[in-house]
Amino acid sequence: MDVDSPRAPALAAWTFKTTITKQPFYYFAVEVVTNGPAEQSMDAHQFHSFLTAVLVEWLGVVGSGMSVDIMDYAFPRAVVRVPFNKHKGVWQAMTVNTFRLLNGTAARFKVTHGSAFYMGVAASSRREF
Length: 129
Prior knowledge:
By secondary structure, the chain is an alpha+beta fold. It has helices spanning 44-59, 61-64, 87-96, 118-122; strands at residues 25-34, 69-74, 77-83, 98-100, 106-115.
């Protein structure tokens, strides 16, 4: 039977089905908050070291082996990527613990945004500039 014929049976419409699965990573927008004068010379490596120290203090050996990636850094703010199944523990460790900067000033991490997608923290409409 000819497809262009008016009596031809209707062709089945193709459908595409997708399932949203759990994301492999979770992203945080993190800020360093100090009680005194901030240290302006902190680089990304020092930021990562302080973050790892906080994770070790709160989570012990599990925190020391946790994969933490800094995606974007401009002191005092950073975008951090962690495994999705560990993000709750990392969030707790960052918000509960305090640490001392190299000049002796007390500091802590403040999570300003969290999202399963990088764009959720990198280009937020609620971000203060």
